Amino acid sequence: MDPYLIPALDGVAYGLLLFVVAAGLVLSFGVAGILNLAHGTLYAIGAYVAAWLADGGWAAVPLALVAGVAGATAAGTALAGLLTPVKRGDHLTQALLTFGLALAGGSLLVSAFGPEDLPVRVPAALDRPIDLAGHSYAAYRLVFIVVAAVIAVGLYLALTRTRAGMLVRAAVDDPQMVACLGVNPTRVRVGVLAVSGALAGLAGVLGAPIIGPGPSTAATVLLLSLVVVVLGGLNSVVGTLVAALAVGEIQTLGVALLPTAAPFLLYAAMALILAARARGLLRRWSTA
Length: 288
What we know:
It is a multi-pass membrane protein. This protein is an all-alpha fold.
């Protein structure tokens, strides 16, 4: 397995990045009831901001984080307002509206930053290989794995150990009861979409050196996030994490093991898992 150590680590990094993005998609659909096909564009906002501000120094890191997260959060909040007329509509209407917003947002980003993929400079201390079991591996990716793991644990604890998290989970199970407790469901929905945007923007800034900004970034991230949500389910942080890691490994380790079949591995695995679940051979991960 030694030759596959680096692809396996890449799969962990890739999977954790997809988890942070998909977690926001799970919140927007599972709690707010919004099928947000503009979610990949929120990631792209963070990625473009990171590429624009990054200069190879440490001072740009907090600036990019604040600007990227703030921009995506503002976009998520604005999205909540634009979706108000269709919040009780069918998901097809929501999908068409958010898809149109995604196209418009993508065009604006390309107009602002150009039609080419942009490089992202990381601090010099992280822009170097380190020795790992006799292999060279990018220092930034190792740091990213640690940071993303902390974010995953923090999100899990926030949803299961805080009052806000309990309200969010209750809004999924019984929104009418939440309203009877004096909590405004509209505020919960807007707050969830804002947090969803913040997660996408955070993933965009931190993950820009992995999935960099470019014209196809939003579509790529959205597609992979939807696969993660389909596999992991809408009611479980743990399920989303496991699905994201599985997708990450298929996308990286799968290429190393079966390069000719790599383009089909992800969707073949998704079809098999969905078929097994439909037959009751697999159970969904428990909530959170």
